[in-house]
Amino acid sequence: MAIEVRIPTILRPLTDGAKAVDGKGGTLDELFTDLDGRHPGLRARLVDDKGLRKFVNVYLNDEDVRFIGGLDAAVADGDSVTILPAVAGG
Amino acid sequence: MRFDSLLDSLGGTPLVGLPRLSPAADVRLWAKLEDRNPTGSVKDRPALHMIAKAEKDGLLTPGCTILEPTSGNTGISLAMAAKLRGYTMICVMPENTSSERRQLLEMWGARIISSPAAGGSNEAVRVAKGLAAENPDWVMLYQYGNEANALAHYETTGPEILADLPTVTHFVAGLGTTGTLMGVGRYLREQVPDVRIVAAEPRYGELVYGLRNIDEGFIPELYDESVLTTRFSVGSRDALRRTRELLEQEGIFAGISTGGALHAALGMAAKAVKAGERADIVFVVADGGWKYLSTGAYGGTLEEAEARLEGQLWA
Q1: For this structure, is B291 an active site residue?
Q2: What is the spatial distance between Cα A42 and Cα A23, in angstroms, rounded to a whole number?
Q3: Which pTM value belongs to this model?
Q4: Do A85 and B211 touch (CB under 8 A)?
């Protein structure tokens, strides 16, 4: 088992076109670092020196990670992580 | 109930219990029926408040042209009010929205300028901002950044909910302009200790997220993260499934975004049951299902309905 991470269209050039990739780690931060080892540059598109980038939304099992610890949110095998750009509704 | 005009009948919507979908005697769900507004959606509240405010400030005078980026409901509300008050209405709307919305807008005399499907409402906002710059005499009320949007809910929706249900513990609504959640959320936080404010954000098909660059995203100026307790992303499959459950089990015929809010509300209800806590969970029925009949959301299997919604803006 691993953690499934769903990648938005605009970041797929970094995952050889894959819609979802597997990773591991105990926190979201560790998971992104793990993914960056196989998909160099991915982490920098998601995170800057202040944390998650402003227009990047990350959901852990459909819940916005900003409300459950951000990059420190605990993740475990079997979890599903979805990355999406922030878009307008209404 | 008697009112001087349709505009005066705004708000005062029913709050109805869901005896079948509520999981326990002390964990109850309540639907705020915002489809019972003048043009049939929750957006009548911000639209009419934004117009009233702009008139009061002298920004809108008879004969003015109103411009607004909208995926539908706000435009429909503004078009109705514009017709009654003597304004010209222009909507910038993504081309991937239901045909009923276009028909309703045209019925109330609005002109529609289509924005590209790819990029969804982001594109509508971008196109509208461009038009506003080219036409300085047009008035863009701009629902994403107009304080009167959130204030409408702070002054009306929030107090109505608390008056009808003083034991409220959770408020759940769809997240679009964020006006409903910001306004009701702020009001309830002032009045109810430990109230939970929960956002249900629609997760669309990939087309809608087709931005050229991740730094071109959009966050409404009204959005203040600190008002929310948490925020869920709800895909079209879950939203459709819950919309159908609401119809089948409670008889409420709602639009698809309501299914998204119900999905998050049921998730909070399950958490309360597990924790052994009592809960009175209010969620918003943003509109009725009428405008979505052509999307095929209510017929056939869930898989078929989900496939038909791919690439559509359903909230």
Answers
A1: no
A2: 13
A3: 0.95
A4: yes
